[in-house]
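Structure in, sequence out. Go:
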């Protein structure tokens, strides 16, 4: 991960399952695998509950990139 990505950034991995024909466009189900949070000292794994909540919050929304702030 580039150093330009801010601390407290979240990274989630989800899996999608589709039906044939056209499984890529005919989603049958989706679930969260895990989420990580970046900190100044490395990465930490979110709890299963927090990961599912974060994944649900992020799904259906366009990803946004936070800009560095001057402190």
């Amino acid at each position: 991960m580039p150093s330009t990505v801010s601390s407290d950034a979240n990274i989630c991995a989800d899996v999608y399952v589709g039906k044939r024909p056209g499984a890529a466009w005919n989603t049958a189900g989706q679930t969260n695998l895990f989420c990580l949070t970046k900190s100044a000292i490395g990465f930490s794994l979110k709890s299963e509950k927090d990961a599912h909540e974060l994944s649900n919050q992020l799904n259906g929304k366009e990803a946004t990139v936070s800009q560095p702030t001057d402190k």
